[in-house]
Amino acid sequence: MNPTINVPEIFGSDVFNEATMKQRLSPEVYCAWKQCIQTGSSLPLDVANEIAEAMKVWATEKGATHYTHWFQPMTGITAEKHDSFIVPAGDGRVIMEFSGKELVRGESDASSFPSGGLRATFEARGYTAWDPTAFAFVKDNSLYIPTCFFSYTGEALDKKTPLLRSMDEVSREAIRILRLFGDHETKRVTASVGAEQEYFLLPKDLYAQREDLRLTGRTLFGAPAPKGEELEDHYFGTIRTRVSTFMKDLDEQLWRLGILSKTKHNEVAPCQHEMAPIYSSANSACDANQLIMEIMKKCAAKHNLVCLLHEKPFACVSGSGKHNNWSLATDTGKNLFSPGKTPRQNAQFLVFLAAFVKGVDDYQDFLRCSVASAGNDRRLGANEAPPVIISVYLGDELHAVVESIISGSNYTDPEKSVMRIGVDVLPSIPKDTTDRNRTSPLAFTGNKFEFRMLGSSQSIAGPNIALNTIMAEELSQFADILEKADDFDAMLQKLVCDTFTAHQRILFNGNGYSEEWRTEAQRRGLSDLRTTTEAMPRYVSDKNVELVTKHGIFTESEFRARNEIHLEAYSKIINIEAKTTADMAIRQILPAVSRYCADLAKNIAAKKALGCSCKAESDLVAKLSCGTDQLYDDCLQLNEALKSVPCESIDAANYFSHVIVPKMDAVRASADRLELITDKDYWPFPTYSDLLFY
Ligand code: ADP
Ligand code: MG
Q1: Distance 324 CA to ligand 1 centre (A)
Q2: What is the pLDDT of residues 648-672, one digit of tens each?
Q3: CATH number, domain with residue 105
Q4: Model-level pTM?
């Protein structure tokens, strides 16, 4: 690592970005590429050939020997297979070659990726196709080409394809609305995303001593440390040297890859940190977030640290999420969620706001399912994480505006009785007062919505597909109505007012943790889906199937395949956690406690021989013996239950959720009770205070 780096110089230096393309491609080819991006058409072969050649020359100058089609299968992480550029020259030597065909399309044995039944095993081939809207880059001596991944029959096997489809849809429908407001310049509306990433850093040597961390990414055991986060001394606190060296290295690596790493700070929990990049298009933010997670892990290892991306590595301590800041921007530079200065702009803003509010209300379950996972089940609703009930927080000012629209009373001027949309000016809506309700799942923060339910390890593709698609649907409904209106202003007034009135139940400014909210939400008829297995059946409801197929985001079979994969992933995770729990309890905790008991018993015998009292030791031995019996019994029950997991994916998931998870939690509770009365020297692995306060 260079101590003095020139950021503008290194930024994007490992990316074959627009500037590099302009420099290295002939003007005709460069224009042809731009044309393809703007129109969404495919690249002619001669253009692809020239781009491939230029990419190869550039990449080999940067030390690349291989290229890889980089894709995002439905596992939620990325996949790559590397091919070298070598071609035999015929005289025993090789030359380096890379053709347009190799750039544009690849073939990959897809049989080991989850397909949810989309790809029969006899047709195990999967294909990758370059996404020319995402730039290629060099990393670890390979040229990485961001690609879409699909089956022989053209079904999407990845997360990028539906994301791109949803971005096209929301753009198309947003433009219909813009045209009605007299905007004839905008050609493209881009869903923009800034994903704040939370993570934990632990010393590698301590991590290595815990099987649960190594196999599941979270602690399956651990009594709370005497100190937690109650002193609030970690949030935004000074960053310790070891961590700040890591962060500096991370920034440099991300900048080289053209990732706009902007903010870094300590988070609420001890050892917890956050990094946020500057927002970009949803597609590029999604690629970037995958790289961020990968590089965080690798970079931590370099600094003898381990980066945990799990949603809830420690019980009773804040979990890690991903705040997904989302907005819509025009190619003319306007943010469609920015309240404007003129009545006309305000009216347009209110239309987009109303569409969003209606969309969240109509499709709560879809949004909820987009963040459902085994890890997030442990995070949502506890320690600073938003609750599982979806609601929208507008902040006091905007909330008052919406209420005045609903009630027909005037917000600013008591003389006038109604706020006339498109005629009156909105009161100014301050940006900063809106962000502080941490219990809100979806908060309006000035000019964007912050979706805070995402788990820290998940791909941001799913939630953004949901946001884009929902928005596309509502905008399309609005456009259908407004395009037919004889009196546009009157229809606008009615539409916005009716929409807010019909969907005000989704608006909530209060404390999302309170029991009163749970009761109130129930009264309002809002969904309260506490776990993945409660939520997922709603994912493939008729309503959602209709939504995604209508907009061409997924075919019905693509959509159902994702549901299958989701459920399977859930079951596999719980299965690994359960087996690790039993293994650690039987082979590490029980023997350790038993050794301690035996030594105590020896001491008791020795003390008794001397006629000393041994009340404390005797009491401890009794408690420890009782506790180990309980632990042993809990383990037997867990292992027994693991023998009868049903086959069908939904039944299996339900079984894991309702039978295995409680048994696993029982083992943990018994072990944690033993930890509190066992000599620390005997305890077989580092405790919460060792890990969190290293
Ligand atoms: P905080 O949430 O900590 O107050 P900010 O609101 O400044 O911080 O930004 C958080 C994230 O939101 C950053 O990734 C930022 O780039 C992103 N962001 C800012 N404006 C927008 C926008 N219009 N659309 C999408 N993301 C945005
Ligand atoms: Mg934020």
Answers
A1: 9
A2: 999 999 999 999 999 999 999 999 9
A3: 3.10.20.70
A4: 0.95
